[in-house]
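User: Fold this; tokens only.

Assistant: Input:
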Amino acid sequence: MHDEGGIRRSAPAGAHQAYVTLVTNADYAKGAVALTRSLRRTGTQANIVVLHTPALGDVDRQVLEGFGCRLVEADLLPLSEQFNERHARRALHTAAPFTKGRKPDFHTPLDNFVKLRLWQLTEYETCVFIDADAIVLRNIDRLFAYPEFSAAPNVYGSLRDFHRLNSGVFVARPSETTFAAMLSRLDVADAFWPRTDQSFLQTFFPDWHGLPVFMNMLQYVWFTLPELWDWKSVHVLHYQYEKPWEANHPKAEALKPLIELWHAFHVGATIPDIASFPNPVAPTASVTVPVGG
């Protein structure tokens, strides 16, 4: 076990590539279970690494280890008190409110910056980061050949958003030099990143490479831009805003087929051919995805 600059890790299994996700509490541990099951289903041979904060409980750690994940404990970044105050949940949501969706109560904005510790995983040549609130529907190993920094656009309400990236899926080359450069630019005087790591990464990598939208299909596309949805092409389905495991989900009816699909992955149900699923036919489509038991 090595303790280097805020992360604690054991030696990897020899792979040079890894899928990485971030788990900061028991809720996102649920997401990581579904994500891991979905990655295993694609037949990938890459390592699956779970960066997690010390707050993650022993039971959840054991569950994720049982799926063959490599767990790497990661501390919060060493940020100033003023920075932390500006990016605390209440302060951030007041200064830069979410108007198109609702973030769950267990979402803590400051935790998002731990994602940057991926660049400390220098035992890997390339990492593909995937948020824990996503599932992978098709093999995406080819992303390991993409350059740093590659990400899909943040499109879910309007095609005008193609110029903004979404940090739920991205390709990175770990480097302590890059990580140090990030820290030097992250917590400067009066710095405010309204969408936390996402805003920062777009600034840090202004010439980011665009991945196809299907590599990070945001769930709201289902009812806001249904003409953009194509089950034959979707590779990663990302449940931004409300999470599929939440009770009293305010978008549950509109997103019912996608929520049912997530639960099928979470419990390990048989998943039929996703290419045969019906696409949404109207902004309030309510077709049911056939998921086997």
